[in-house]
Amino acid sequence: MRPRILVTGIPGHYARLANGANGLAVSYSERQKQPETKDEFLQELRNISNTGNYLIGEGALRALAPHAKQVPFWHLYNCSQNGDGFEQFNSNFDICVFTCANLLRKGLSADAEAEVLGKLKMPIVMLGIGQQNRKDLENALPEGTKRLLSILKEREHYFLTRGFETTGFLKDQGFSFVQPTGCPSVYFMPDNMRRALKKLPSVQIGKARTIFSGYLGGNQDAILDANALEPQDSVPQYVVQDEFLLFDMRVEPNAEGRVYDSASGKMIGDVAYPGTERLKRPFDVRTFFDTNQWRAWASSMDFNFGRRFHGSIIAMQAAVPSLMVAVDDRMREMLGFTGLPAVDATDIDKAENRAEFVADHLAGLNASELVDRYSDRERNFRTVLREIGIGQ
Q1: 119, 149, 287, 315: which sits with the fewest CB atoms below 10 Å from its CB?
Q2: How far apart (Å, rounded) are the C-alpha atoms in residues 149 and 73?
Q3: Please, what is the Cα angle at 63 between 315 and 381, to 5 degrees?
Q4: DSSP codes of every residue in 272-329
Q5: Are 222 and 4 spatial neighbours (Cβ–Cβ below 8 Å)?
């Protein structure tokens, strides 16, 4: 008999429409949100904190068996706090898939996760778990995260990690079923991912309309990228994920009292961030709360040059060739495991001519090898899910 699968953790974009839950039932609004005022826009961004995270929940649910049931984590947490309701979850499900990201990090104590998963009396699959920086964890693992790992040691568990470094850390903690599979977002729309990889060597830098992503307001790297790579006769395009929340990027309403156009995803208010004066042409800045809208827009572009992992993955899901810039250990781990094309931030920063550096790197790529490596990782991911009994 196939296991009854409960899915929770990081959600897909569809969770934005959830307006209530009672027991096993979750209700969804039929009215699409249009967060166009400043307060509405920023609140919508806070609800997910990083729009790239929507790809994690979306990719996970698509990879799992179709009878898997998504229950919002906030509902499980509320049931835990209220002291009721967990009997029905434990009696109606056989296994829980918890979708996560860089859960193992110095600044995050997984208290809520420990609270909820500690009350689920079933095997737990930690899908997409990763670490931020192992050096930070060796002597400073947060108490809530220590409690979560202790809970998982008491029952059957499965850790499907983002890469080899997280796998090594968890094995050192004494866990047995730990396998690197990569982030589930990487295996959503795999045919388009392969198409994107095949196109990479033929991208013409200086002529390709390019999507940029990074940390505007935190640094000016994306500005340097756009000045070097964007065609002279076009406007550079930048996609936001969390910059308005975490960095010095601000927006104020236009004359209509709006900061955001829901139809296009374009920021139409007065957007400000350090370094604006250095841009040859100001960015068109966009934010997407719906991954389908994000992919549809991305598909009209020629190339993606991204300092954000998920901002680049969604472009590849739309068959847009993408080259990532590895900016930290977390990103290096994911790229190192998947083999997706990337350059290191330190290398591009040292390049005398950024456009020539990127063009030369693309020309030297072997598209067939990239596709074969990706296909191997995809097979591995789906094989592990089937071995556990939760895959399609």
Answers
A1: 119
A2: 18
A3: 90
A4: E-TTGGG-SSPPEEEE-SSHHHHHHHHTTSSEEEESSHHHHHHHHHTT--EEEEE-SH
A5: no
